[in-house]
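The instructor's notes for this session suggest beginning with a concrete chain rather than abstract definitions. Hand out the sequence below and ask the class to guess, before any prediction is shown, which regions might be ordered.
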Amino acid sequence: MAVPIYVVDAFTDKPFHGNPAGVCILEREQPEDWMQSVAAEMKHAETAFLRRAVDRWQLRWFTPTIEVDLCGHATLAAAHVLYSTGRASKQEKIEFQTKSGKLSARSEGDLIILDFPSEPINYEASEEESREVAEALGLTTTPKFVGRNRMDWLVRTFTADEVRNLNPHIARVQALGHRGVIVTAEDEEYDFISRFFAPQSGVDEDPVTGSAHCCLGPYWAERLGREDLTGYQASPRGGYVRVRLQNDRVELIGKAVMILEGRLLA
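After discussion, reveal the predicted structure:
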């Protein structure tokens, strides 16, 4: 039986901007290696696989090489598909069951609001680790801060231009381990900007990373003294993520555009 499949550009209101994600709607459970093969065929940073389970949707995310525990843009894309195709009413809150527990999405005008876990920094890097991370990123100055949470490294540079102009050594970034590296700085136009490199997960640079904002949100809220922030991810495609802190949760707010609808025959 053919499987409905979509491509959605997430965290943008313009086609061919933001972060593209594949979304597959499954009628029955599929083998893990099949889902991994589909994700490798799609070649997007993530492909989401949805399957209806009574009162919620089972949701899994795969990069071209591995399954990941948390993904923001593919969840936004999945919610956009469910709302756009009438599988969910715009007045309905969508509940997802994932490897990171229960997540949800709701529609508010042309925005989709995701309820995600906060992923604050829980480790500050040593001087040696900071130097190793800086060299992997191609930074010529010592970062203002280097630390990590359970998934990613976080590197704060002194200027936004350092983030925009980064040209990392991808093989050395891959050797750092963990899921990936978030690089960020305060910005004059936005509250903060960022980029995200994850060759460890099969994605050299992710265009817009919702889950990274589960770390960026609490990090910048503490330093800027505000719990409602707007971040810009300065990849070549670029995209915007509004972040709103809710105790130990983070709301990720953005738009999405569907650009492809089809059926997977294999």
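Then share the key points. The mean pLDDT is 96. The chain has two domains: 3-116+252-264, 123-247.
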